[in-house]
Description:
This protein is an alpha/beta fold. Helix 6 packs parallel to helix 7 (178-187). Helix content is 40%, strand content 18%. The radius of gyration is 17 Å and the shape is globular. The strands form 2 sheets. Strands 1-2-3-6-7-8-9-10 form an 8-stranded parallel barrel, surrounded by 5 helices. 1,6-di-O-phosphono-beta-D-fructofuranose binds next to helix 1 and helix 9.
Amino acid sequence: xxxxxxxxxxxxxxxxxxxxxxxxxxxxxxxxxxxxxxxxxxxxxxxxxxxxxxxxxxxxxxxxxxxxxxxxxxxxxxxxxxxxxxxxxxxxxxxxxxxxxxxxxxxxxxxxxxxxxxxxxxxxxxxxxxxxxxxxxxxxxxxxxxxxxxxxxxxxxxxxxxxxxxxxxxxxxxxxxxxxxxxxxxxxxxxxxxxxxxxxxxxxxxxxxxxxxxxxxxxxxxxxxxxxxxxxxxxxxxxxxxxxxxxxxxxxxxxxxx
Length: 258
Ligand code: FBP
Protein backbone atom coordinates (compact mmCIF):
# COMPACT_ATOMS: atom_id res chain seq x y z
CA UNK A 1 0.00 0.00 0.00
CA UNK A 2 1.32 3.44 -0.95
CA UNK A 3 0.90 5.91 1.91
CA UNK A 4 1.07 9.60 0.98
CA UNK A 5 3.59 11.24 3.31
CA UNK A 6 3.69 14.50 1.31
CA UNK A 7 5.54 17.23 3.22
CA UNK A 8 5.38 15.28 6.48
CA UNK A 9 8.62 13.55 5.53
CA UNK A 10 11.24 15.69 3.81
CA UNK A 11 14.60 14.23 2.74
CA UNK A 12 13.88 11.27 5.02
CA UNK A 13 13.44 13.50 8.08
CA UNK A 14 10.56 15.24 9.82
CA UNK A 15 10.20 17.94 12.47
CA UNK A 16 6.70 18.14 13.93
CA UNK A 17 5.27 20.74 16.30
CA UNK A 18 2.94 19.37 19.00
CA UNK A 19 0.17 21.53 20.47
CA UNK A 20 -2.28 19.16 22.14
CA UNK A 21 -0.99 19.89 25.65
CA UNK A 22 -4.03 22.09 26.42
CA UNK A 23 -6.08 18.90 26.64
CA UNK A 24 -3.39 16.57 28.00
CA UNK A 25 -1.99 18.87 30.72
CA UNK A 26 -4.16 22.00 30.83
CA UNK A 27 -3.10 25.65 30.59
CA UNK A 28 -0.39 25.20 33.26
CA UNK A 29 1.93 24.56 30.29
CA UNK A 30 1.09 27.99 28.84
CA UNK A 31 1.97 31.64 29.34
CA UNK A 32 0.29 34.79 28.01
CA UNK A 33 1.74 34.27 24.53
CA UNK A 34 1.60 30.54 23.89
CA UNK A 35 -1.89 30.12 25.36
CA UNK A 36 -3.06 31.61 22.04
CA UNK A 37 -3.17 28.92 19.30
CA UNK A 38 -2.53 31.62 16.66
CA UNK A 39 0.93 32.20 18.17
CA UNK A 40 1.78 28.50 17.71
CA UNK A 41 0.39 28.40 14.18
CA UNK A 42 2.65 31.34 13.24
CA UNK A 43 5.64 29.37 14.56
CA UNK A 44 4.54 26.34 12.54
CA UNK A 45 4.31 28.47 9.38
CA UNK A 46 7.42 30.62 9.75
CA UNK A 47 9.45 27.64 11.00
CA UNK A 48 8.27 25.57 8.01
CA UNK A 49 7.40 22.59 10.21
CA UNK A 50 6.65 19.27 8.56
CA UNK A 51 3.45 19.11 10.56
CA UNK A 52 1.41 20.74 13.30
CA UNK A 53 -0.35 18.42 15.76
CA UNK A 54 -3.75 19.68 16.94
CA UNK A 55 -6.97 18.44 18.47
CA UNK A 56 -10.07 19.10 16.35
CA UNK A 57 -11.39 22.07 18.37
CA UNK A 58 -8.23 24.10 17.75
CA UNK A 59 -8.09 22.96 14.12
CA UNK A 60 -11.70 24.03 13.49
CA UNK A 61 -11.28 27.50 14.97
CA UNK A 62 -7.68 28.45 14.15
CA UNK A 63 -6.02 26.28 11.49
CA UNK A 64 -5.46 27.89 8.10
CA UNK A 65 -2.95 25.62 6.30
CA UNK A 66 0.06 27.03 8.16
CA UNK A 67 1.78 23.61 8.00
CA UNK A 68 0.55 20.08 7.17
CA UNK A 69 -2.16 19.25 9.72
CA UNK A 70 -1.81 16.17 11.91
CA UNK A 71 -5.11 15.65 13.64
CA UNK A 72 -4.93 13.94 17.02
CA UNK A 73 -7.90 11.56 17.10
CA UNK A 74 -7.90 10.70 20.80
CA UNK A 75 -6.92 12.36 24.05
CA UNK A 76 -7.39 12.51 27.79
CA UNK A 77 -6.69 14.86 30.68
CA UNK A 78 -4.17 14.33 33.48
CA UNK A 79 -6.90 14.82 36.09
CA UNK A 80 -7.85 11.16 36.40
CA UNK A 81 -5.25 9.00 38.09
CA UNK A 82 -4.64 5.28 37.72
CA UNK A 83 -4.22 3.23 34.54
CA UNK A 84 -4.80 5.60 31.63
CA UNK A 85 -7.23 5.25 28.75
CA UNK A 86 -7.43 7.67 25.82
CA UNK A 87 -10.64 7.43 23.82
CA UNK A 88 -11.44 8.50 20.28
CA UNK A 89 -12.71 12.09 19.99
CA UNK A 90 -12.54 12.68 16.25
CA UNK A 91 -13.11 10.46 13.21
CA UNK A 92 -10.77 10.00 10.27
CA UNK A 93 -13.40 11.62 8.00
CA UNK A 94 -13.69 14.71 10.23
CA UNK A 95 -9.89 14.95 10.22
CA UNK A 96 -9.81 14.80 6.41
CA UNK A 97 -12.52 17.47 6.20
CA UNK A 98 -10.40 19.70 8.42
CA UNK A 99 -7.50 19.26 5.98
CA UNK A 100 -5.47 16.63 7.85
CA UNK A 101 -2.50 15.09 6.05
CA UNK A 102 -1.98 12.49 8.80
CA UNK A 103 -3.75 11.32 11.93
CA UNK A 104 -2.37 10.68 15.41
CA UNK A 105 -3.43 8.35 18.19
CA UNK A 106 -2.00 7.67 21.68
CA UNK A 107 -1.70 4.09 22.92
CA UNK A 108 -0.88 3.52 26.59
CA UNK A 109 0.73 0.11 26.37
CA UNK A 110 0.71 -1.81 29.64
CA UNK A 111 -2.43 -0.02 30.89
CA UNK A 112 -5.32 -2.28 31.94
CA UNK A 113 -7.27 -0.46 29.20
CA UNK A 114 -4.74 -1.33 26.49
CA UNK A 115 -7.16 -3.71 24.68
CA UNK A 116 -9.69 -0.91 24.08
CA UNK A 117 -7.05 1.42 22.66
CA UNK A 118 -5.67 -1.37 20.45
CA UNK A 119 -9.14 -2.09 19.08
CA UNK A 120 -9.95 1.58 18.38
CA UNK A 121 -6.51 2.18 16.89
CA UNK A 122 -6.84 -0.77 14.53
CA UNK A 123 -10.10 0.69 13.15
CA UNK A 124 -8.71 4.17 12.59
CA UNK A 125 -5.51 2.70 11.12
CA UNK A 126 -7.53 0.84 8.50
CA UNK A 127 -9.73 3.80 7.70
CA UNK A 128 -6.79 6.20 7.43
CA UNK A 129 -4.92 3.77 5.17
CA UNK A 130 -8.00 3.46 2.93
CA UNK A 131 -7.40 7.18 2.27
CA UNK A 132 -3.61 6.63 2.09
CA UNK A 133 -3.17 8.90 5.14
CA UNK A 134 -0.13 8.26 7.36
CA UNK A 135 -0.91 7.11 10.90
CA UNK A 136 1.26 8.33 13.78
CA UNK A 137 1.09 6.33 17.01
CA UNK A 138 2.15 7.90 20.32
CA UNK A 139 3.49 4.70 21.96
CA UNK A 140 3.56 5.49 25.68
CA UNK A 141 4.12 2.68 28.23
CA UNK A 142 1.99 3.66 31.25
CA UNK A 143 0.05 2.20 34.15
CA UNK A 144 0.60 0.16 37.30
CA UNK A 145 2.27 -2.71 35.41
CA UNK A 146 5.01 -0.42 34.04
CA UNK A 147 7.80 0.00 36.54
CA UNK A 148 10.07 2.20 34.42
CA UNK A 149 8.47 3.77 31.35
CA UNK A 150 11.85 4.94 29.98
CA UNK A 151 13.65 1.59 30.09
CA UNK A 152 15.12 0.31 26.83
CA UNK A 153 13.22 -2.95 27.16
CA UNK A 154 9.78 -1.43 27.60
CA UNK A 155 10.32 1.31 25.00
CA UNK A 156 11.52 -1.27 22.47
CA UNK A 157 8.42 -3.35 23.22
CA UNK A 158 6.17 -0.30 22.76
CA UNK A 159 7.89 0.59 19.47
CA UNK A 160 7.46 -2.98 18.25
CA UNK A 161 3.75 -2.93 19.13
CA UNK A 162 3.42 0.20 16.99
CA UNK A 163 4.91 -1.69 14.04
CA UNK A 164 2.72 -4.74 14.67
CA UNK A 165 -0.42 -2.58 14.82
CA UNK A 166 0.35 -0.83 11.55
CA UNK A 167 1.62 2.61 12.56
CA UNK A 168 3.64 4.44 9.88
CA UNK A 169 5.37 6.69 12.39
CA UNK A 170 5.94 6.06 16.07
CA UNK A 171 6.28 8.90 18.54
CA UNK A 172 8.02 7.67 21.63
CA UNK A 173 9.98 9.01 24.61
CA UNK A 174 13.78 8.91 24.47
CA UNK A 175 15.47 6.19 26.53
CA UNK A 176 18.33 8.44 27.61
CA UNK A 177 21.25 7.07 25.59
CA UNK A 178 22.05 6.40 21.96
CA UNK A 179 22.89 2.71 22.25
CA UNK A 180 19.69 1.75 24.00
CA UNK A 181 17.61 3.95 21.69
CA UNK A 182 19.16 2.28 18.62
CA UNK A 183 17.49 -0.93 19.80
CA UNK A 184 14.17 0.90 20.18
CA UNK A 185 14.46 2.20 16.60
CA UNK A 186 15.47 -1.23 15.32
CA UNK A 187 12.49 -2.81 17.05
CA UNK A 188 10.19 -0.39 15.19
CA UNK A 189 11.36 -1.91 11.86
CA UNK A 190 9.97 -0.03 8.85
CA UNK A 191 7.85 2.21 11.06
CA UNK A 192 9.71 5.51 11.38
CA UNK A 193 10.54 6.79 14.85
CA UNK A 194 10.09 10.33 16.19
CA UNK A 195 11.34 11.27 19.65
CA UNK A 196 8.76 13.02 21.86
CA UNK A 197 10.01 16.30 23.33
CA UNK A 198 8.93 16.23 26.98
CA UNK A 199 9.08 18.98 29.62
CA UNK A 200 11.33 21.99 29.08
CA UNK A 201 15.05 21.18 29.04
CA UNK A 202 18.11 23.44 28.87
CA UNK A 203 19.04 24.69 25.36
CA UNK A 204 21.86 22.18 25.23
CA UNK A 205 19.56 19.46 26.56
CA UNK A 206 17.03 19.84 23.72
CA UNK A 207 19.71 19.94 21.04
CA UNK A 208 21.47 16.95 22.57
CA UNK A 209 18.21 15.00 22.46
CA UNK A 210 17.69 15.91 18.78
CA UNK A 211 21.29 14.92 18.01
CA UNK A 212 20.94 11.61 19.85
CA UNK A 213 17.62 10.92 18.11
CA UNK A 214 19.25 11.27 14.68
CA UNK A 215 22.33 9.27 15.68
CA UNK A 216 20.05 6.47 16.89
CA UNK A 217 18.30 6.24 13.52
CA UNK A 218 15.12 8.14 14.42
CA UNK A 219 13.80 10.51 11.74
CA UNK A 220 13.66 13.35 14.23
CA UNK A 221 11.40 14.81 16.90
CA UNK A 222 7.81 15.78 17.53
CA UNK A 223 8.40 18.63 19.90
CA UNK A 224 6.10 21.03 21.72
CA UNK A 225 7.04 22.70 24.98
CA UNK A 226 10.76 22.87 24.19
CA UNK A 227 9.98 25.07 21.21
CA UNK A 228 6.97 27.20 22.16
CA UNK A 229 8.02 27.68 25.81
CA UNK A 230 11.44 28.88 24.61
CA UNK A 231 11.77 32.67 24.46
CA UNK A 232 12.65 32.62 20.74
CA UNK A 233 10.82 29.64 19.22
CA UNK A 234 12.02 30.32 15.67
CA UNK A 235 15.66 30.36 16.72
CA UNK A 236 15.14 27.06 18.56
CA UNK A 237 13.47 25.71 15.41
CA UNK A 238 16.46 26.77 13.31
CA UNK A 239 18.92 25.18 15.72
CA UNK A 240 16.95 21.92 15.74
CA UNK A 241 16.80 21.91 11.95
CA UNK A 242 20.56 22.38 11.65
CA UNK A 243 21.02 19.16 13.61
CA UNK A 244 18.18 17.22 12.05
CA UNK A 245 18.43 18.19 8.38
CA UNK A 246 22.02 19.41 8.07
CA UNK A 247 23.82 16.98 10.39
CA UNK A 248 25.36 19.85 12.38
CA UNK A 249 27.03 19.26 15.73
CA UNK A 250 25.44 20.42 19.00
CA UNK A 251 28.04 23.19 19.54
CA UNK A 252 27.47 24.64 16.10
CA UNK A 253 23.65 24.66 16.52
CA UNK A 254 24.02 26.22 19.98
CA UNK A 255 25.59 29.31 18.38
CA UNK A 256 22.16 30.11 16.88
CA UNK A 257 20.75 30.40 20.40
CA UNK A 258 23.48 32.67 21.77
P1 FBP B 1 5.99 17.89 24.34
O1 FBP B 1 7.14 18.02 23.38
O2 FBP B 1 5.52 19.23 24.83
O3 FBP B 1 6.32 16.94 25.49
O4 FBP B 1 4.80 17.24 23.53
C1 FBP B 1 4.82 15.89 23.16
C2 FBP B 1 3.56 15.18 23.65
O5 FBP B 1 3.53 13.84 23.20
C3 FBP B 1 2.27 15.86 23.28
O6 FBP B 1 1.84 15.51 22.00
C4 FBP B 1 1.36 15.46 24.39
O7 FBP B 1 0.43 16.43 24.70
C5 FBP B 1 2.28 15.31 25.55
O8 FBP B 1 3.57 15.11 25.06
C6 FBP B 1 1.89 14.18 26.46
O9 FBP B 1 2.82 14.11 27.49
P2 FBP B 1 2.70 13.19 28.74
O10 FBP B 1 1.63 12.17 28.48
O11 FBP B 1 4.05 12.62 28.92
O12 FBP B 1 2.32 14.09 29.87
